[in-house]
Amino acid sequence: MHSSPFLQSVYDYMLVRRYSIRTIRSYLYWIKYFILYNNKRHPQKMGREEVARFLTFLAARRQVAAATQSTALNAVAFLYNKYLDQPLGDLGQFQKANRQRKLPVVLTQKEVRAVLDQLTGPHQLMASLLYGSGLRRIELLRLRVKDVDFDHLQLRVWNGKGGKHRLTTLAVELVPRLEAQKEHVRALLENDKLYPGYAGVWMPDALARKYPSAPASLSWQYLFPASRLSLQPGTHLLRRHHFDESSLNKVVRMAAQNAGIEKTVTSHTLRHSFATHLLRSGADIRTVQEQLGHSDVKTTEIYTHVLQQGAHGVRSPLSGIW
């Protein structure tokens, strides 16, 4: 529950319309920030000038990244265009955040091995899939049991970034552990069914109507479920969600620290490493693009840039005088 009746109303509006919990949290954060920045004035008494000034403040004073400014814009645009039904229209000129491309942090294969060696059980399996299949963190956590294709050694990723679907590779070495994980999910499901009021796993509305028995079927359960049952926000439905996103990042970061790696390592670092190692092994950039789910090959080319620097691309002149 929110202390502000206005924010609670916005929360309820998004919840009823099936916005994801991630989107709801993000939008509420920026809407609240926008209101506080404007000395708690009610959004109905403000408009495009205040929004443009807020976005300029984020770029000029807070120096946020372009993607962060874009998220803030999306949140405030939702507030006016959808919730308040007061379309903003053209915001005019506001300072854009610098869209400076960051070079990805990439681990060596030895470092990846060291990170994985610090983990056990499902945590190690999740990290292995991040690296072995190049998944984004949320793509991994949203995998259902049915999305693992053991016969063709591939994973089906549904509604990845940009709402795109794709297939990505699956390391044969992970098959026995994935089969064991599937049996673990099966045991959890059978136990969950004993709870009064258990409503099965969450399903998108259209699929829930089309397949009414799917929420309680093994194939639709999350491959990496949460450790406990919980009530779906805004409802009294008892479900088992997937493993927590922020917890996964903490697990990977702690593993890297325990392995003595001084680089800044997140779960996304394993995806960066997947792409770089594929290219280094001779994979075609278009193939890597498809594996990663990039809509533009220019996004994938950042990894060739990494490979072309240093000893793997340009020989330092210092090496010629020693």
Poorly predicted spans: none
Choose one word for the global shape. Answer: globular
Main β-sheet: number of strands, strand sense, barrel status? 3 strands, antiparallel
Number of helices: 13
Mean pLDDT: 91
What gyration radius follows from the Cα positions, in whole Å? 23 Å
Briefly note the structural class of the backbone. mainly alpha
Could you explain the architecture of this structure?
The structure is a single chain. By secondary structure, this protein is mainly alpha-helical. The protein has helices at residues 5-16, 21-37, 48-60, 66-83, 109-117, 121-133, 137-141, 175-192, 205-210, 245-258, 267-280, 285-292, 297-307; strands at 148-149, 154-157, 166-169, 230-231, 238-239. Strands 1-2-3 form a three-stranded antiparallel β-sheet. Strands 4-5 form a two-stranded antiparallel ribbon. A hairpin with an 8-residue loop joins strand 2 and strand 3. The radius of gyration is 23 Å and the shape is globular.
Secondary-structure blueprint of this entry?
Elements: H1 5-16, H2 21-37, H3 48-60, H4 66-83, H5 109-117, H6 121-133, H7 137-141, E1 148-149, E2 154-157, E3 166-169, H8 175-192, H9 205-210, E4 230-231, E5 238-239, H10 245-258, H11 267-280, H12 285-292, H13 297-307
Antiparallel strand pairs: 1-2, 2-3, 4-5
Helix pairs in contact: 1-2, 2-4, 3-4, 5-10, 6-11, 11-13, 12-13
Brief account:
The protein is mainly α and 322 residues long.
